[in-house]
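User: Second chain of the day. Same drill as before.
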Amino acid sequence: MDRIHHRLDRYMRVWEEAGQFSGTVLVAQGEQVLLHQGYGFANLEFGAPNTAATIYKIASITKLFTAAAVLQLHDQGKLALEEDIAAYVPEYRHGGGITVHHLLSHASGIPDYTALPEYTTRIKLSPEVILRWLNDHPPTCGPGERTEKSNSNYVLLARIVEQVSGLGIEEYYSKNLFGPAGLGHTGVCRNGDVIPGMANGYSVSGEGAVHADYYEMTGAYGSGFLYSTAGDLLQWTKALGSGQIISGASYGRMTSAYGFMKYLGAYAGYGCLVKGNPAEELVMDGNIYGYTCTVHHLLQEETTVIVLANNDAVPVNRIQRGLAGLLAGEEPDMPINPSQLLAGHAEPYKHLAGKYVFSPMGWEFTVSWEEGELRVDRLFIQAAGRKRFPLRLVSAENGIVSFVCAVCDSTFFFRLEEDGSCRCVEYVFDTLKLVYEKV
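Assistant: Same format as last time:
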């Protein structure tokens, strides 16, 4: 155990020293915890370190708790998964034909309220307001036709839990999930609350770490408003699979593979992603301003890898993959440390400046040539602040010119035509590979 602990810790130290990781990591096999440690700083201003017990916002991992609440009520005979949601949330006027199962498996067709024109991250919201918006924006397809992640599904599910149980969602979580599972450091996050032990949330700018933008937590509701620790999340993962929280049959439903999400490379489960059919690995990801996190649970190996970060540009899934690879005896992919790359020599490639678009989602970024270097105005997660993100040349061979972001783990592979022009760039962030076309 000492040897594997040393290898896992050494791998994380490389990320920390490259300025690419700040957070807490937990790796467990069966009942044995191989690594549970904090890296970087919970508070940069005061140099307060992250520890094993540091608390983080867990964003969409909240959905797993909401799904468990729904399945718990189903186990008690109080709720039917194939029932139209109109029976539970009559104030939502498009609920006919949409079942509880459709919500749980992201197959409802209900648009994501965070993508509606009415939404901003700074306004206080209630479920009633979100429901009014959704009443004005009908589903984009029929129930079961497509599988597309939508936060609206889990806002509605939390509302259903409240209607069926007679409890507010926070009280329901506390009495029926947190308490029975022994989660002493998990709860609902409000913007005004002082939560002892919580890490500050950071982002990156072209000049390094900055405070994350404000995000009003009321809107996240049952889709993303919880905080937790790595230790609590390990305990929660164990409690779900043990029959302590939901029945074995309901756990089987939760971990079944429903519609495939090509963009995420996994199937939709209930409150989680499922890799393999039948399920081999459960994935719970969360991302919110200032925080990003992932929990991977390999069912057959009884291995859990948890990565929680208090900087939203951290590639948590790439780090998770490296830790899992070490357990399997593989040599992990190591981070590039941009500070060790020589600046300059990029002038032959200033013609790569221009606007690039990822058509399937309408995402875009603009590369510019400024002060002798290429810079980009947006990464996958965020727009640049005071200064655009500088790019550092890594290599130029076989018609591909590679640049990395100087302040976070993002790589750009520009593909050159025979005349030297560029039509597209493959943008790699974390484990995502997205091809943007030049326009």
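Residues 2-17 form the longest helix (16 residues).

User: Great, on to the next one.
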